[in-house]
Structures are given as structure tokens and as C-alpha cells.
Amino acid sequence: MRYDRHTKKKKRKKTSILLVLLLLFGGTAGYTYFQYKQGVNQSLKKMNKENNVNEEVYTFEGKKDQYGATNILLLGSDARAGEEVSRADTIMIAHYNEDKGTYKLTSIMRDIYVNIPGEGKHKINSAFMRGGPELMRKTIKENFDIDLQYYAIVDFEGFVQLVDEAFPNGVEINVEKKMSAYVEVPLEPGLQRLNGEQMLSFVRFRHDAIGDFGRVQRQQQALQAISDQLSGIQTIPKLPKLIGVVTPYINTNMDTGDILFMAKDFFAKDRGNIQTFRIPIDNGYEDARIKGEGSVLDLNLEMNREAFHQFLTK
User: Fold this and answer.
1) How far apart are CA 68 and CA 23, in angstroms?
2) Cα separation of 210 and 207, whole Å?
3) CA 167, CA 171: separation in Å to the nearest integer?
4) Four-point Cα dihedral 59, 109, 171, 199, nearest 10
5) pLDDT at residue 250 tops 60
6) For 15-19, what is the mean pLDDT?
7) What contacts 94, CB < 8 A, 6 or more positions away?
8) Is 276 within 8 Å of 72 (Cβ atoms)?
9) Alpha carbon distance 133, 118 (integer Å)
10) H-only helix segments in the chain
11) In what order do the strands lie in the sheet with 112-116?
């Protein structure tokens, strides 16, 4: 009898623990979904529309690369109102290696002159206009021998909303010079806190002596500053809403769960540092002018490809 009572007591204890775990899991899932939807609805209300900015469904035949990493093609489009197609204003590849626990970011300058499959040699940013993210994937694969699993086409307004939601007091960053030409919000030099609109001016400014090279450098600087100031375990509860805020501004083949998993892994392990790389590398290109293309960056393709793969595997 005593043994039976002890066995029943153990079973009741196990059942209670299981119920508590189920309640915790259900509560966490409910909270996550609620926060995510709150972020989505907040952005949709600001957009004054019920659907995403870019609803086009693209074919994308991506896969993991030969090093076991997940690569995400990040594209910022320079489309203007009324335009049907556009070149890619920003081209980046986010690299995530779950086994190594590494996060890296490669910027590809839009004026590099490469072969685009089926189209001949052109500036790489025109691959998006000619065939969407899939042709951009093929172009990067042919020239740099790396596979891309996912794509995300980002509307710059999403960047603004994300910064304002994550940083109510702005992102601290050093503005190295006055920036006023061809930007919505002029900036003065100095260490300061920038809101979303100001950060957008910072990452898009390129009308100085170093042009697009400076713009790419500032984009990487801005993403590193955001990562550093957002990183840490305390950020995890904010992630569902932050992802919800930016979702209406992104066209991607990634599931929300995949995005949340990678972001949670990054912040849970306090991996604020992101290694960065740029194509072309220093001394790996020449300035040239091509009829019909204008000024281009003519690559030493082998040198850039080798340096790129060294960056990915180190």
C-alpha cells in the first residue's frame, strides 16, 4: 500500500511539472505571437494599408553554402514611385554559421562590373532589375562561388521604423562630416544620437570625395553600432515586436520563425561583434568607363574571390 501511494505521488508530481511546462510554453508562445502582431499592426497603421509594401512572390533556388553556413542576400531597392523595376541600391550578404556560432556581413559594391548569367557583363546592381533576387543569386554564385539560401528585399522605411522602435533615444554614432547633399535630413559632424530618419541619411550619403566606398563603410558602421547597442539577453523579449515592426517592409522567403531563431541565438550569446568584408577588396579593382554603363569597378575576380572565401572560413 505504501509503495502504491508513493508511486501515485510521483506520477502526480510528474503530471504537475508537465502541466506547468505546457502552461509556460503556451504562455511564451502566446506572448511572442501577441508582440509580433502588435509590431506588424503598428507598421501597417503607419503605412495606412493592410498589405505588405512588396507583395511580389519571387522564385529563389537557394541552398546552404559549401561551408555549412546560411547566407542571406540583403537587397535595398532604389525604386521611386511609379517605377516598375529598379536596380539594387544596396547589396549585402549576411552569413550565419550555427555550428561555429559566427555572424558575418559582406557588402558588395553596386558598380562592380561582372558577368550576369544570360545577360553579359554589366554592373552587378542591374541583375536585380533584370531578373529579381534569383538572377542576383546566380550572378553572385557564378562570380564568387558562394551559395545563398535566403533573400530579403528591404524597403528603407522599414529601417527607419526599426531604429525608432528599438532606440527611442536614438543610436549613438559618430558622424564624421557634414552630410547635406541629396539626403532627406541633413547631418552635422560629431558624436550624437540619431533617430531613424537621421540614420537613413547617414547610411545613404555618398556625395563626397570617396563616393560609394564611404557609403558602404558607413552602412557597416551603422549596423555594427545597432548590433552593439541592441545586443544582450535583455533584448530577447523585444525581438518579436521588433521583427513584427519590420516585417511589412520586407519581401523575403524566410519564415518568421527562422528570423526569430537566428536573432535570438545572436542576442542570447551576446555576440554583438559582426565581422565585415567588402567586395572589391583594396587593390583588387581598377576604375574604368564602359560605354553604356558609365563608371565601373573592374575587378581582379580571382583575387576578390580568394579573399572572400578566406573571410568566410577564418
Assistant:
1) 36
2) 8
3) 6
4) -90
5) yes
6) 55
7) 71, 72, 74, 103, 104, 105
8) no
9) 15
10) 2-47, 126-144, 156-166, 196-204, 211-230, 239-246, 256-268, 301-313
11) 120-123, 112-116, 294-299, 285-290
pTM: 0.85
Q: What is the mean pLDDT of residues 250-279?
A: 82
Q: What angle do CA 129, 162, 107 make, to 5 degrees?
A: 45
Residue 10 and residue 15: Cα distance in Å, rounded? Answer: 9
Confidence check: pLDDT of 83 > 70: no
8 A C-beta contact, residue 56 and residue 251? yes
Average pLDDT of span 244-265: 88
In the predicted model, what is the mean pLDDT of residues 243-258?
A: 91
- C-alpha 8 chain-centroid distance: 53
Strand partners, 74: 92, 152
CA distances from 181 to 93, 107, 185, 212 (A): 28, 23, 10, 14
Quick one: pLDDT at residue 12?
54
Q: Are 128 and 138 in contact (CB under 8 A)?
A: no
Q: Model confidence over 113-134: pLDDT tens digits?
A: 999 999 999 999 999 999 999 9
pLDDT at 24 over 80: no
- Which amino acid does the sequence have at 221? Q
Cα separation, 247 vs 36, whole angstroms = 9
Look up cell 519564415; give the residue.
Answer: 255
Average pLDDT of 135-147?
A: 98
Q: What is the predicted pLDDT for the residue at 273?
A: 72
